[in-house]
Design a protein that fits this description.
The chain is α/β, with parallel strands linked by helices. The protein has helices spanning about 5-10, 10-25, 25-35, 35-50, 65-90, 110-125, 135-145, 210-220, 235-245, 255-260, 290-305, 310-315; strands at about 55-60, 60-65, 100-105, 130-135, 150-155, 165-180, 190-195, 200-205, 230, 250-255, 265-270, 275-285. The protein contains 12 helices and 12 strands. Helix 3 (about 25-35) packs across helix 4 (about 35-50).
Length: about 325
């Protein structure tokens, strides 16, 4: 017989509630969950009937958590923390040389150094399965929160997450964006001011990608209007091909440019001031104590100590299609 607790604490019900509590928007939450808005509304109403109180209320078009909703949100986080802790404790007793490691890679990161490392790692640790997933920022944080991935490879700082207490990070390399252009006037400059980068149209990542968001904030801080964007792509290779064929401008990570500069038909120059960030592993606290995760991270450190990150990217790069 199905109890009230079964209705309240099903994994699906709680994940729907958490997603809505995060976005405070039924349409956006439904899209992220991959369901219809009516289906999400029905699940939330079912949860509210089970607990006996409304969890959300609206003021105009804006959604808010009720007192009951805040209580439920705190309880849900406690439940997930308990389950994640139990999972980690179980995994800590596992063998360093077997099992599965799940890694979420931010989709806008050039992945050649990581795929090269994982190939080498497999040859020495054939009983460890590595699952490597390309994800958006929101997908990465959702999977970290739900303990569905062990490690994330992403750019920091990232303001997507407000509460960093459950997480740790380990820097891989310092990064900066370079301005790529076709202007002979700017060709010999070592640095370029933001105001001198907007004369020609740009190709960029989609607006919700980290690098686009980060760059927009940089232009905003310099009080310069963001360039006209005429095309958006989700991979570095697509952006570069469009740049080569059309003569528009863009901004790309230094590591990608250094690895592929012979195939990029544009001048590259640093911004003034620099647009700097870091590439890092992000994981839930304690994950690095799990034997196979600890061994994996140590092996990656060794991999970069033998040859630096930029060199690894160049060694493992995939030739761009001209």
């Amino acid at each position: 017989m199905k109890t009230k607790q079964d209705s309240i604490f099903s994994s699906k019900t709680l994940s729907y509630f958490l997603q809505l509590a995060e976005t405070m928007n039924y349409t956006q939450a439904a899209q992220l969950l991959g369901i219809t808005q009516p289906a999400l509304t029905q699940q939330i109403k079912k949860l509210e009937r089970a607990v006996g109180a409304p969890l959300f209320y609206s003021v105009g078009k804006k959604l808010h958590l009720s007192d009951a909703g805040r209580t439920m949100l705190a309880a849900t986080h406690d439940i997930y923390d308990t389950l994640n802790q139990a999972t980690d404790e179980i995994q800590q007793a596992s063998n360093a040389n077997s099992g599965t490691i799940k890694i979420g890679l931010l989709a806008s990161i050039e992945d050649s150094a990581f795929t090269g490392f994982i190939s080498d790692y497999y040859l020495k640790n054939q009983d460890v399965e590595v699952v490597f997933l390309n994800m958006t920022r929101h997908e990465i944080w959702e999977h970290l929160e739900n303990n569905q991935i062990d490690l994330a490879v992403m750019y920091l700082p990232d303001d997507t997450i407000k509460n960093w207490k459950p997480y740790e990070s380990r820097k891989i390399v310092d990064e900066q964006l370079l301005f790529l252009h076709h202007s002979d006037k700017l060709a010999n400059r070592k640095r370029v001011h933001f105001r001198d980068t907007v004369a020609q149209p740009w190709v960029t990542y989609p607006e919700n990608y980290f690098l686009s968001h980060f760059l927009k904030e940089a232009y905003k801080n310099q009080m310069v209007d963001y360039p006209e964007v005429v095309a958006q792509f989700t991979t570095l290779y697509q952006i570069t091909q469009f740049l080569n064929r059309t003569g528009v401008n863009t901004a790309l990570p230094n590591s990608f440019y250094q690895a592929h500069q012979e195939q990029i038909h544009a001048h590259a120059v640093a911004f003034e001031p620099a647009v700097s960030f870091e590439l890092a592993f992000v994981f839930r606290k304690g994950k690095d104590q799990i034997p196979r995760i600890s061994q994996f991270l140590s092996a990656f450190d060794t991999y970069l100590s033998e040859e630096d990150y930029l060199s690894r990217v160049a060694d493992n790069r995939v030739k761009l299609n001209e």
